[in-house]
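Below is how a single chain appears once it has passed through the pipeline. First comes the sequence as given, then the structure the pipeline wrote out for it. We keep one example in the README because the format questions we get most often are answered faster by looking than by reading.
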Amino acid sequence: MNILSILAVAAGGAVGAVGRYLMTAAVHRALPPTFPYGTVTVNIVGSLAVGFLSGLFAARADSRDHVLQLFLIAGLCGGFTTFSAFSADTFHLIERGAMGPAAANVVLQVAGALVAVFAGFWIARQL
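Resulting structure:
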């Protein structure tokens, strides 16, 4: 671990967090506030990006890309995806007695993210 690696993760995290805020806000303007569609969207899009980027970096295996990999995957994607928001959204749905939407949120987030990671790897391998 060196200062360049730490700065890469920090910079990527800042960019990812702003991206998450902007995408979540856009989704919330477009869809009803009865379900955490914004969180679902960023988690699935972020998982697709993680899968795609991981697939690209795995295929290249070039140590010179380490800082870029940290910036993009640990930083940007880590700042963009929102597991803590997912957990809070699920809690609030349960607290309101919305068990069906809470269960749908868990299934969509987990299954959607896993499918997106697999899809990202598949896309990267097609290049």
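The two ends are 31 Å apart (CA to CA).

See the next section for the split statistics.
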